[in-house]
Amino acid sequence: MSRRAAPRGALWALLAGNFVIGTGVMVVPGTLNEISASLSVSVATAGQLITVAAVVMCLGAPLLAAAVAGWDRRQLLALTLLWYAAGHAVAALMPSFGALLPVRMLTVVAPAIFTPQAAACAGMLVPPEHRGRAVTFVFLGWSLASVLGLPIGALVGGHLGWRVAFGAIALLSIASAASIWLTLPQGIRPAALTAAAWARVLRSPVLMGIVSVTALQGAGQFVLFSYFGPILKRDFGADPTMLSLMWALFGVFGLAGNMLVSRFIDRVGAGRMVLLTSSLIALSLFLWPWAGTLPWLAAVLVPWGLGCFATNSAQQARLVGLAPTLAPGSVALNSSGIYVGQAVGAGLGGWLLANDAVAWMNWAGFALLLAAIGLSVAIDRSRRPA
Description:
Oligomer: single chain
Helix content: over 70%
Largest sheet: none
């Protein structure tokens, strides 16, 4: 089937798959209070579920990209979602934190495969001039996860328990696997990257610089994002319903930001979009200490929401646009950048939380965002003709 004839339903199925994947990744931050109480561990300890999962996803994305290079993408993506379903179902049955941790690590093998391979697959379903929009469209699933999946998961977890929330994700994963199987064309096999192609990716200062920007962005956000629920409960007295509403607010603006990026990125340019979205996140982190009430905090979260998922979309489109033939490798490494950022941010945030240094969390994140912005600008300048 030609790229022009590829069914629109396939892109929607990939978007839905990212929605399920994103909801499953974010269910732990959304239910961190409940996991901590249920398994009798501290919030900082429970937060290490985020750290170890991010490490697995970081290492798994490029390694698994090479391992599954020759697979038909319909089979690969459907089976990946079924693995995700099984992992969440088993995790919901675990009696202790020690038992839950390794199950969570195995479960998040699925995001390490699905998100980068869905992006590379989307680029093959459309003509070259529409690649940026297709990649960002598929990544809207993560924004929808923040709008619907995360707040609903937090609400369900807060009132019915985190195990019910995990079980619901298992059911959604099965439904999404069926959607992928029914709509994605057969025979989509991106050319396997040779050792020489991987070397080109790894030795490219521009491509690896972009991946580094992604890692710095992720670390800067997850210092606070990982512990958003516990901080709001402690400092603002937020109950599960209020937490869900705050997550939903964040997600609504996340969706809006991603939709705007998807619409204008081919016109404005990916590099400029990364600069804009990163600056919005940095603004929220800078203003965080002055958010003394929940209404003011809601206002402070608006720029962060607009930039959070949109900046990842712009980064993926940036890589695909710069080197389409190297996209399976560069996008996989970019996913690693997202996850290594999450691991570093969650680890740093957990350390600050455990050492009663919550007041420093936003400033640590802000410094990391400034570093990401500076590196991104330097990359764009290096590519301009003298």
